[in-house]
Amino acid sequence: MAIVVESLNIGGTGLCVMVKDTIDIAGLPTRASSRALEQAEPARQHADVVQRLLDNGCRITGKTSLHELAFGTTGINHYTGTPVNPRFPALIPGGSSSGSAAAVAAGLADFSLGTDTGGSVRVPACCCGIFGFKPTFGRVSRKGVMPAFTTLDCVGPFAASLPMLISAMAIIDPEFSPVSPPSRVKIGVLGVPASAAVNAVVQAALKASGQVLEPVECEDFEAAYSAGMVIINRETHAACGHLLATGKVGADIAGRLQAAGTMTDAAVADAERVRERFSAQVDAALQHYDILALPTMPDFPLRVEDAADTRAVLGMTSLVRPFNLSGHPAVTLPLSSAQGLPVGLQLVGAKGADAALLAAASLLLQRIHEHPHNSSPEVQP
């Protein structure tokens, strides 16, 4: 299934974990599922998050595949092979942390680690029908994670349940301390462009939660997506552009990397101004609401055969990428639709309030499960 690129048996006898192959494990090369890095030197030491896993008695059983160089959203990889989406085999597994999401969905690990630069944990979690979390930017150590420099990327966990996701955060983040779910939360529901079918599922779930729901707008939301694209292009080209000279980068990624090299300083400066404005807008909204809610993806995941053009499908990150730009923590919860296809409910919290966000998610999930008939996508909001 091309989920695991390196089988391992490292660590204690605790939780079974798999790790995305952009995260260093001492003695093993970090190849990022790219032929251009097939001769990479073995890492000299563990990434900080890997050391945290080992210090907490976890057993690391594999390094997982990904969309090449973590620079794509579908998870399709013609070099290592594309992981089959275990729960929805006809659909893409999502990217870039495709193998990490598929490993959890297939029951191969208690939890796994991915990285999220523009939705690369939340999108594959949504596609595979599991939980995925992007922490506050800078909260979880990225020492030993590729790329070395980023203003967007976060290490985050995947799990098949919210309690396991919370346990994973407590392991990889020494500052994380779980908190009890609140009795009620006030939710700002972001108005964003998404398909009617996806919106119906998300709105029905929010209604079923029984919480206070109010509409909220962030003026620069769509501009934040575009700005996030500019920043990821500049930073990924800086980190990986030199690999184009090897002639071994896959054609889809090579084309995108070449285009990324055309980002101008003026475009980056404009993007940084959008970052500042949008971050302030989200901060302001979270002064009035405990959390913000919106879909994780704007439509159902694509079928594998419809997802060949990496650049053409980047819009599937339109609802997640803005929060990489702003740095706010965000979690995706799996929902089901009348069509039998996966939908994600994305919840966003204040910077640094990662534990409170996951506690609020626990409350919503409990309430939705208590009123399953109300969360049917047939119910109108």
Automatic annotation (TrEMBL):
InterPro entries: Amidase, Amidase_CS, Amidase_dom, AS_sf
Positions of the Amidase domain: 14-358
Cross-referenced PROSITE patterns: AMIDASES
Domain of life: Bacteria
Pfam families with a match to the protein in the record: Amidase (PF01425)
Transmembrane segments: none
Coiled-coil ranges per UniProt: none
GO MF, one example: catalytic activity
Protein name listed in UniProt: Amidase
